[in-house]
Amino acid sequence: MEKALLAGGCFWCMVQPFEEMEGILNVESGYTGGHVENPTYEEVKSQKTGHTEAVLIEYDEKCVSFDDLLEMYWQQTDPTDAMGQFMDRGDSYRPVIFYYNEEQEKAARDSKRRLEESGKYKEPIVTDIEPAQTFYRAEDEHQQFYKKNPRLYAEEKRQRKEWVDERKQVGAE
Length: 173
Hints:
With about 170 residues, the protein is an alpha+beta fold. It has one domain: Peptide methionine sulphoxide reductase MsrA (Peptide Methionine Sulfoxide Reductase, Chain A, 2-Layer Sandwich), CATH 3.30.1060.10. The protein has helices at about 15-20, 40-45, 65-75, 100-120, 145-150, 150-165, and strands at about 1-10, 25-30, 50-60, 85, 90, 95-100, 130, 135. The chain has a six-stranded mixed β-sheet with strand order 7-6-1-3-2-8. It has a two-stranded antiparallel ribbon with strand order 4-5. The protein starts with a strand and ends in a 6-residue tail after the last helix.
């Protein structure tokens, strides 16, 4: 079993796409990168803990690769927005690929470079790539949000898609 730690705005919208991939064993919502131990959702949301909302993905590398996860990641985020994601604003919602080893770091940097070179976005790609830090699991009500709150999740997902589509270049050469 391998693990990946990815941040792309509100963790509510980051779980389902990864859970639906073959080879994914578990996806948990949580917080990482801050200076407060065992932060709560309210503390992180206050922007005072230094934490970023993220998902911890456990996967079977025989079925799915870290590169596969990165491909899915880019489809879920706006990599041109360093100050949050979509309607979620602030450092706790910034896009970050956290790495656990040199291979993940290299894969993340290569993937980001390919996206930059693709011309897919009008603005520069600003997603950070950083070493993984302690991951704190979010409270139970934040786990499996898309299953527990299907209507609210559907609206969040729709708004995210509109935001991303608006920022992409249409017909980029």
